[in-house]
Design brief:
By secondary structure, the chain is α+β, with helices and mostly antiparallel strands. Helix content is 35%, strand content 20%. The strands form 2 sheets. It has a 5-stranded antiparallel sheet. It has a two-stranded antiparallel sheet with strand order 1-6. A hairpin with a 4-residue loop joins strand 3 and strand 4.
């Protein structure tokens, strides 16, 4: 029960303009990390179409964080995605035991990491569709040792 109370306090802090450190996996989500740039934005546009449920939600892709300092996108995908994702030339998928720093829910523009697509309780990025779009659009630079070290230092 104390774990639940701590998570509720953390989520309230996120709503209150604070950064939240959250463990990956479990009941929440895993993350896929890619380069930012025109190719990644093209993938977002297609995923917006895939996920669109009405004209009221033009940014229906699912939650995506942009880290302009590292020129990365962090896509929130269903938990356990990292167990099936496998090696991929244009992305890195992380789950347990890593952690992610989520920007405040009100952070929708720089400076610092911000929500390129907002986090809604009813939607995550669909992993199969994401992988297909990453294969099609090939956001680069492709992940490599330097990118991996950068990502792990910021989210572990």
């Amino acid at each position: 029960m104390s774990d639940l109370a701590a998570r509720v306090r953390s989520l309230m802090a996120l709503q209150d303009h604070q950064v939240l450190q959250l463990p990956l996996g479990g009941h929440f989500f895993d993350v896929v990390v890619t380069a930012s740039g025109p190719q990644a934005y093209a993938a977002i546009a297609v995923l917006d179409e895939v996920q669109r449920t009405s004209d009221v939600q033009p940014d229906a892709c699912g939650p995506v964080i942009h880290d302009p300092l590292r020129d990365l996108l962090v896509w929130l995908v269903p938990p356990s995605t990292s167990e099936q994702w496998g090696a991929h030339r244009y992305s890195l998928c992380l789950g347990r035991p890593h952690r992610v720093a989520l920007p405040s829910m009100t952070a929708t523009e720089p400076p610092g990491p911000y929500w390129l697509r907002p986090c809604r309780g009813d939607r995550l990025v669909p992993p199969a569709a994401l992988r297909q779009q990453l294969d099609q659009f090939r956001p680069s630079p492709a992940p490599h040792e330097t990118l991996l070290a950068s990502v792990l230092s910021t989210i572990s």
